[in-house]
Automatic annotation (TrEMBL):
SUPFAM superfamilies: Class II aaRS ABD-related (SSF52954), Class II aaRS and biotin synthetases (SSF55681). This is Proline--tRNA ligase. Residues 38-322 form the Aminoacyl-transfer RNA synthetases class-II family profile domain. It catalyses: tRNA(Pro) + L-proline + ATP = L-prolyl-tRNA(Pro) + AMP + diphosphate.
Length: 412
């Protein structure tokens, strides 16, 4: 990809009113653009990052038997009335009427839509379990949309829904999802904890959140220094330094954090309200067990920027970076031909390249490279002669390598 053709260009200044790090850096580096409070356009660089996040999630959802679908965003009032959430969740729902006076909501979640879907297709225990997921836009009427892409009024989310014949099978799958989510966040590279939390407008049951430790986080959690115990502060006060209530050995640590995922056990509550029943092997009619599981893709991107940056800009890792390398061409008489050849050889070796071919000063190119934050910067100039200067975003060290050595280093 030639940087001269990349839309848009980087900005020198952060947007006015930007309070959070991810807001300032993602806008300046050209990853997102704000339409209005809580509403964002994913620009080409931002979309490449979110696509990589989604692919990691997709692979782990498929590994536990999830099947990908795409459900509607416009929902009729009647389906929300079946669970009572048309009124219960009214404060965060966007509602509208068509020309005939019919009422609808824009999707803030898809539990009701999923249950309506499966009840059309299940009759007996042999049809269960079912696990479907999708990536879609969610709409939530946040009273104060802030923190960049961390708290939007519309945002991308992966939600998985599962339905089971009995409690044992449900809890077995619930734990499988918990492990799959842990794999997702481990692959992404987060320092995270699993905490117990309240269910909000989703359920009266306690749920589990996946919280990334972050100084700028909106949540406060307690977690054990020795075991996997964790709790959101909303469920009760704890004292930092006190003994863990689970293992009795570790001490409790208090931390600010950002929620990037959550999982909800619903039991048979929604199934009973919506008539999601099946016939068991003894011919008895029973309600199905149900759960939902969410990860905010755009929120993950914003969270990464919150925890991985410096005074120069974003620091991506290879798993999330929009490109593998940033090829910086410092203009010389023969550089254009040399840069084009190197670009083609790297791309031919399966390495994704952002090629800065712009006719601007070297300092401006280096500033832009640090701001965008691709893990490896490659420089070609008169000084490098027939070599390429390799520099990693997290280091000041440079080394001169041949094209073959660069390719080998990537594939080692």
């Amino acid at each position: 990809m030639q940087q001269s053709k990349l839309f848009p260009k980087t900005k020198k200044e952060a947007p006015r009113g930007a309070e959070s790090i991810n807001h300032r850096l993602l806008v300046r580096a050209g990853f997102v653009d704000q339409l209005m409070a809580g509403s964002w356009t994913l620009l080409p660089l931002g979309w490449r990052v979110v696509a990589k996040i989604n692919q990691i999630i997709r692979e782990e959802m498929n590994a536990i038997g999830g099947q990908e679908v795409l459900m509607p965003l416009l929902h009729p009032k009647e389906i929300w009335n079946e669970t009572g959430r048309w009124d219960k969740a009214g404060e965060i729902m966007y509602k509208l009427k068509d020309a005939r006076g019919r009422e609808y909501a824009l999707s803030f979640t898809h539990e009701e839509v999923f249950l309506d879907l499966v009840r059309k297709h299940i009759t007996s225990y042999q049809d269960l379990p079912i696990a479907l997921y999708h990536f879609s836009t969610k709409f939530r009427n946040e009273p104060r949309a802030k923190s960049g892409v961390l708290r939007g009024r519309e945002f991308m989310m992966k939600d998985l829904y599962s339905i089971h014949a009995d409690e044992e099978d449900f809890w077995k799958f619930y734990e499988e999802v918990k492990k799959a989510y842990s794999k997702v966040f481990e692959r992404i590279g987060f320092d995270f904890r699993i905490t117990e939390a309240g269910g909000g407008v989703f359920t009266d049951n306690n749920t589990h959140e996946f919280q990334v430790l972050a100084e700028g986080g909106e949540d406060t959690i307690y977690y054990c220094s020795q075991c996997d115990w964790g709790l959101n502060e909303e469920l009760g006060k704890n004292k930092e330094g006190s003994k863990c209530p689970k293992c009795k050995k570790g001490e409790l640590i208090r931390s600010k954090s950002i929620e990037v995922g959550n999982i909800f056990p619903f039991g048979t509550y929604y199934s009973e309200l919506m008539g999601i029943n099946y016939v068991d092997k003894n011919g008895k009619r029973k309600p199905a067990w149900f759960g939902s599981y969410g990860i905010g893709s755009t929120r993950v991107m914003g969270t990464w920027v919150e925890v991985s940056h410096d005074e120069k800009g974003i620091i991506w890792n290879k798993e999330l970076s929009p490109f593998d390398v940033h090829l910086v061409e410092l203009k010389t008489q023969n550089s254009k031909l040399k840069a084009k050849e190197i670009h083609e050889r790297l791309e031919g070796a399966g390495i994704e390249v952002l090629w800065d071919d712009r006719d601007v000063a070297a300092g401006e190119k280096f500033v832009a490279a640090d701001l965008i934050g691709i893990p490896v910067r490659l420089v070609i100039s008169d000084k490098t002669k027939d070599k390429i200067e390799w520099k990693e975003r997290t280091s000041e060290k440079t080394e001169l390598l041949s094209v073959e050595e660069v390719i080998k280093k990537f594939h080692d």
